[in-house]
Write a structure and sequence with these properties.
- The complex is a heterodimer of chains A (343) and B (348).
- Chain A is an all-alpha fold and 343 residues long.
- Chain A folds into two domains: 37 residues, no CATH class; 262 residues, ABC transporter involved in vitamin B12 uptake, BtuC (Orthogonal Bundle).
- Chain A has 14 helices and no strands.
- The two termini of chain A are 31 Å apart.
- With 348 residues, chain B is mainly alpha-helical.
- Chain B has one domain: ABC transporter involved in vitamin B12 uptake, BtuC, CATH 1.10.3470.
- Chain B starts with a helix and ends in a 6-residue tail after the last helix.
- The chains are: A mainly alpha (343), B mainly alpha (348).
- Chains A and B meet through helix 6, helix 7 and helix 14 of A and helix 7, helix 8 and helix 15 of B.
Chain lengths: 343, 348
């Protein structure tokens, strides 16, 4: 008996250590690539100049290029990636299905459709757009939940209803974009696949506030959320307030997804891919929230660098994540179906 | 017991004998509705035309402004009819092959796969001849169909509606990202192909319709011939095999027919979703589950439905117009959700 217990303790300790190591490595990678993306570009600035700009000193040339162009862009990449990753994995964990990420079941599309409607038709700009996107994403989530409700909500039905809603909202986005007086490709790409091309502090600050507000809430729900994976009944028997956990997590995750979408558009597949990649890195039985957020940030940072410099044309980040994510998505789908549906 | 005797106890076959008369009537009504949609499609647009103009225009006379507008609207109407019929039939066949109520060429990602193949062909292989688009589109549709079916049928329980739909949605999202990635740097060159991300019949011309026609005809013939085989498949693989049906061959032949239809339809009109989902369900309510009736009715109602959706798209945003792919999705998605709600969870 005590041998079994000892095994359990050792196993748990090993998992915690592995998760800690993965988080540390991911965080180090995010910081490194963040720094590199501030240094390189059309003009190279050494790390010391970048540091001076960050702490507020005036460096000729670098103050504008790094401070006004590269820093907001890289910050937006990190924040949006983190928000998509952590929000996505929350949904995947809660619905016990890696395919139930907000970009597949229509929540990102809800935020995006409202954002593009607010800008093109109503002529709003700035933080108002974020507010509209957040409200619309919450309404979309509620609508999907209600439409999937029939003597309780079943994960599979919710996913299918979400796919229908996503298809509908996607055509609303196309419709509004086609109605716009001129087909502005940059704007269109932002709302269809996600782009960092218009990053500025006005865009970054609201997202930063949302991330700082919602992340602690989600982290506090990490343990009950993990227990929900065992099924509602088991979780309730273990003392988890099932409905409250679910409600709080949904609201916090939708807030993150909506703010990130309002800031950078629905960057394709980041919410979808971050969770499963984090799960593979961390291994079973550990909370995925922080690792998934870091993986998301890393994906967006790297994809933006690839889109900016690696290819002949400058691609918006969403096109790169979409194109690079597609093969992995197919692979993941094959693996998930084979193993019977867990992350 | 002889095979024919065995077949007579099938519910579908029994229902055929009971309902022959009303079904013929229904078919005539369906044809009437298609004609109505077609007339509306040539009559309604930015410029409203009177009966006189329509008659003049249909007889090829474009001497007045009104009849000239009608003449301009004819190819687009023909295209909507053809594409709608093809997608409706393809959807009905796919639902039959997979015994899956949620199957649809758009939802399963097959039309998006065809679009990706065409865009890839134009961008990287230097295709310039519209006739080659068709071959490439059909090839792309076939590859995607096989891929989605394989992905969706892995693991426990075989190809369940949920797994197939998810595999289709994911594949569709993946293909659409790649289409954007390929189109983006070439956007000015390929502005005319923008409809391949949305789906539309506005850019119809007789040349392309003529090129697609043989493919659509072949697909139609293959699908209609498979009707009897699909009826047997509906009984389950074991029973069908027991009745002497080569299950795999039926699936392959009918699948090839529907893939040709989707590929050709996508090559001329871009990816359009939900037509192949909605139309067969409607037809099943009208004529029952016998594929010998279901398939022709799906062609008719598919043609009527897409044409009506195109007319609606011209009406709601006058003087601009909404592409038919958008209208089809806006009307089709609520139906899909209703269908999901109605389906038993166990079956998902």
């Amino acid at each position: 008996m005590s041998a079994v217990l000892a095994d359990l303790v050792v196993g748990r300790r090993r998992r915690v250590r592995r998760r800690g190591a993965v988080v540390a490595v991911l965080a180090a990678l995010v910081v490194t690539i963040f720094a590199v993306s501030l240094m390189v570009g059309h003009t190279y600035y050494p790390l010391i100049d970048v540091w001076h700009v960050i702490v507020g000193d005036v460096v000729p040339g670098a103050s504008f290029t790094v401070g006004e162009l590269r820093l907001p862009r890289a910050s937006l990449a990190v924040l949006a990636g983190f928000a998509f990753g952590i929000g996505g994995v929350t949904f995947q964990t809660m619905l016990r299905n890696p395919l139930a990420s907000p970009d597949i079941i229509g929540i990102s599309q809800g935020a995006s459709a409202a954002g593009v409607f607010a800008i093109v038709v109503l002529g709003y700009s700035g933080p108002t757009v974020s507010v509209v996107a957040v409200v619309a994403a919450l309404v979309t989530a509620l609508l999907i939940y209600l439409l999937a409700w029939k003597d309780g909500v079943v994960g599979t039905r919710l996913v299918l209803v979400g796919i229908g809603i996503a298809a509908m909202l996607h055509s609303v986005i196309s419709w509004v974009l086609l109605r716009a007086s001129q087909w502005d490709l940059q704007v269109a790409m932002r709302w269809l696949t996600g782009s960092l091309n218009h990053a500025s502090w006005d865009v970054v600050i609201p997202l930063l506030v949302a991330v700082l507000a919602a992340t602690p809430v989600l982290l506090s729900q990490g343990r009950p959320l993990a227990l929900l994976e065992l099924g509602d009944d088991t979780a309730a028997a273990l003392g988890v307030p099932v409905e409250r956990t679910r409600l709080v997590s949904i609201v916090a995750a939708v807030l993150l997804i909506a703010c990130a979408t309002a800031a950078a558009g629905p960057i394709a597949f980041v919410a979808f891919l971050a969770g499963p990649i984090a799960a593979r890195l961390v291994g079973p039985g550990a909370s995925l929230l922080v690792p998934a957020g870091l993986v998301g940030a890393l994906i967006v940072l790297l994809a933006d660098q690839v889109g900016q410099w690696a290819l002949g044309t400058r691609y918006p980040v969403g096109v790169v994540t979409g194109a690079l994510g597609a093969p992995y998505l197919v692979y993941l789908l094959a693996r998930t179906n084979k193993s019977g549906g867990s992350l | 017991m002889s095979l024919t005797h065995e077949l007579e106890v099938l519910p579908a076959a029994a229902a055929t004998r009971q309902r022959v008369a009303p079904r013929t009537t229904l078919l005539l009504v369906a044809i009437g509705l298609v004609c109505l949609a077609a007339i509306a499609s040539v009559a309604i647009g930015v410029r409203t035309t009177g009966w006189h103009d329509i008659v003049l225009g249909l007889s090829g006379d474009d001497s007045t402004i009104g009849s000239a507008a009608v003449v301009k609207r004819i190819p687009r109407t023909v295209l909507a009819l053809l594409v709608g019929g093809a997608l409706g039939l393809a959807g009905a066949v796919m639902q039959g092959i997979t015994r899956n109520p949620l199957a649809d060429p758009g939802l399963l990602g097959i039309t998006m796969g065809a679009a990706l193949a065409v865009v890839t062909g134009i961008a990287f292989l230097g295709l310039a001849d519209p006739a080659s688009y068709l071959w490439v589109a059909i090839g792309g549709a076939a590859v995607t169909a096989v891929l989605v079916y394989l992905l969706g049928s892995m693991g426990r329980g075989g190809p369940t509606p949920l797994k197939l739909t998810l595999a289709g949605a994911a594949t569709s999202a993946a293909c659409s990202s790649l289409v954007s990635a390929i189109l983006l740097p070439r956007i000015d060159v390929m502005n005319e192909f923008r409809f391949w991300e949305i789906g539309g019949v506005g850019g119809a011309d007789w040349h392309r319709i003529g090129l697609a026609l043989p493919f659509l005809a072949v697909g139609l013939a293959i699908c209609l011939v498979s009707a009897r085989g699909l009826n047997l498949l509906a009984l389950g693989d074991d029973v069908a095999a027991g009745l002497g049906q080569d299950v795999t061959r039926t699936r392959l032949v009918a699948g090839a027919g529907s893939v040709i239809l989707c590929g050709a339809a996508t090559a001329i009109a871009g990816p359009i979703a939900f037509v192949g989902l909605l139309v067969p369900h409607l037809c099943r309510q009208l004529v029952g589950v016998d594929h010998r009736w279901l398939l022709p009715t799906s062609v008719l109602l598919g043609a009527g439905w897409l044409t009506a959706a195109d007319v609606l798209g011209r009406l709601i945003a006058r003087p601009a117009e909404v592409d038919v792919g958008i209208v089809a999705a806006l009307l089709g998605a609520p139906f899909f959700i209703w269908l999901v709600r109605r389906t038993k969870v166990r079956a998902l």
